[in-house]
Design brief:
This protein is mainly alpha-helical. It contains 4 helices and 4 strands.
């Protein structure tokens, strides 16, 4: 969910794209439950994606405002049968199920000691969400060869131009 919409391809661009994304996860559900013009549902999914990315950015030391207002129309209730989880209230639909499953997973993750390892890349043009598997939880970028190198090169250029004498 957090890594949908990078580059030119957004898996949450429209209902057909979202159906393809969900089908690719091999999750059991009725793909026809997505209404053909569900712009409100897609806005809810995009808001949830922004919340997850915002929390992951916070875990990477970037102070961002996490705005959950886009989730206000999502009503969830606890399901205590079996493993505790959340169910969406309201009419059945794929988007509500995706949101309930994502919020359930997010709440479970925040309660675990490994939660700080869920991070978003510091690259301003990236923001890919990843698991920091470094020993001391110090990883900053999704890929050192790309985003890390770009950031370090920019920092070097800034330092070098600041130290050069003015002609």
């Amino acid at each position: 969910m957090a890594n949908t919409g990078h580059g030119e391809h957004d898996e949450l661009a429209d209902p057909p794209a979202m159906r393809v994304w969900w089908a690719g996860l091999h999750a059991p559900t009725d793909l026809e439950a997505v209404r053909p013009h569900a712009t409100e549902d897609l806005a809810t999914l995009r808001a949830l994606r922004a919340v997850v990315r915002g929390l992951a950015l916070r875990n990477n030391g970037i102070d961002v405002r996490v705005d959950a207002a886009g989730l206000d129309r999502l009503t969830l209730r606890p399901d205590l049968r079996g493993s505790p989880s959340l169910l969406a209230d309201g009419p059945d639909g794929l988007v509500r199920d995706v949101c309930a499953a994502t919020v359930t997973a997010l709440l479970r993750a925040t309660a675990r000691p490994g939660w700080p390892r869920l991070k978003a890349c510091r690259g301003t043009d990236c923001r890919w969400v990843f698991i920091d598997s470094s020993r001391n939880t110090s990883r900053r970028w999704c890929d050192m060869a790309v985003c890390g190198n770009r950031a370090k090169s920019a920092s070097f250029r800034t330092r070098r131009s600041a130290s050069e004498p003015v002609a």
